[in-house]
Write a structure and sequence with these properties.
By secondary structure, the chain is an alpha+beta fold. It is built from 8 helices and 4 strands. It has helices at residues 3-11, 26-37, 51-60, 64-77, 105-112, 119-130, 134-143, 149-160; strands spanning 17-20, 41-44, 80-88, 94-102. The strands form 2 sheets. The protein has a two-stranded parallel sheet with strand order 1-2. The chain has a two-stranded antiparallel sheet with strand order 3-4. The radius of gyration is 17 Å and the shape is globular. The mean pLDDT is 92.
C-alpha cells in the first residue's frame, strides 16, 4: 500500500539489499533509515537538485520534535548521495553528469559537528573538498568536447546560484 509498508514487509523476508522506488515522505524515509540501521543495504531515490538539497529534504520531512534524532539517524546510515543531470551534447544526444559525496566516517563526523539546519551548507563545502560538484562534472565533459561552452556556463551559473 505504500513504500514504507514495502520496506517493513521486506525486512520480514531477511533481505540483503532493499530498493525503495522513492523516499519522499517521513514514514518512508524513517523506514529506510530503520532498515539501514539494522544492517541492510538500502537504495532509494529522492527528488532533489543536488546532494545538499537531498540532505535538506530528507531531514526536513520530519516534525520539529523528531527532526534532530531522525536527522542524526540519517547521517549515521548514509553512505553515498549521488545526483544526476542529463546535459545536451554537441551532437544532440545527452550525457549524464553526476554530483556525489561519499559519507565516510570523516564526512559524517564533520556533519555531526554542526546543527542540522547547517547541513546543506556543510555538505556544499564537503562536496568541493571531498566529492564532485555538478560544476566539476560538467567541466570534465566540456574539456573533453562533449558539451559546448554555453551548456557548461549554464551549469556553472546554476551552481553559483545555489542550485544544481
Amino acid at each position: 500500500p505504500s513504500f514504507a509498508a514495502g520496506v517493513r514487509n521486506a525486512l520480514r523476508r531477511k533481505p540483503t539489499i532493499i530498493l525503495v522506488g522513492e523516499a519522499r515522505d517521513a514514514e518512508t524515509i524513517a523506514a529506510c533509515g530503520e532498515a539501514s540501521l539494522t544492517g541492510h543495504l538500502v537504495f532509494s531515490t529522492v527528488h532533489a537538485n543536488g546532494v545538499a538539497e537531498t540532505i535538506r529534504r530528507m531531514s526536513a520531512v520530519f516534525p520539529a520534535e523528531e527532526r534532530q534524532g531522525r536527522a542524526i539517524d540519517l547521517m549515521e546510515s548514509l553512505r553515498m548521495v549521488i545526483t544526476q543531470a542529463l546535459l545536451r551534447t554537441i551532437d544532440g544526444n545527452r550525457v549524464a553528469t553526476r554530483e556525489f559525496l561519499v559519507f565516510d566516517e570523516e564526512v559524517r563526523d564533520r556533519m555531526l559537528q554542526h546543527d542540522v539546519d547547517d547541513w546543506p551548507d556543510v555538505s556544499r563545502t564537503l562536496l568541493k573538498e571531498r566529492g564532485q560538484t555538478m560544476e566539476m562534472a560538467a567541466l570534465q565533459v566540456f574539456e573533453k568536447g562533449i558539451i559546448d561552452e554555453r551548456t557548461y556556463k549554464m551549469v556553472a551559473a546554476r551552481a553559483e546560484a545555489g542550485g544544481h
